[in-house]
Amino acid sequence: MVTDIFVVLVALEALFIMGLEIFGTQTAMARRAFGLSREYLATRTARSAMANQGLYNGFVGVGLLYARYGLTGAAAYRMQLVFVGFVVVAAIFGALTANKQIILTQGSPAIVALLLLLLLH
Asked: Where are any strands of DSSP class E within 1-121?
């Protein structure tokens, strides 16, 4: 059950990030979360790039929820590993290239979920 909680937490976080990136780029929350200026986020290029990133975060969130609740047995387990693994890799890459905080905010729940999946399966 603890594993399920962390997997769902990672999925919901991905969907929340999707919402910020697609619909909330002009909000103070998005500026703080992404460390970007109001002026930059107001540009068409930034809005387009953020929406594109948001779409991928949405795919990860939906994929995780589908893996957990739409699949059964070994397929469910393997797909959860794949999608949680994507988030871990993205968090590491983001921490190295964009903002070190990503490893804590997005990476920590995914790393815990991955460890729980591996250890408790």
From this structure: none
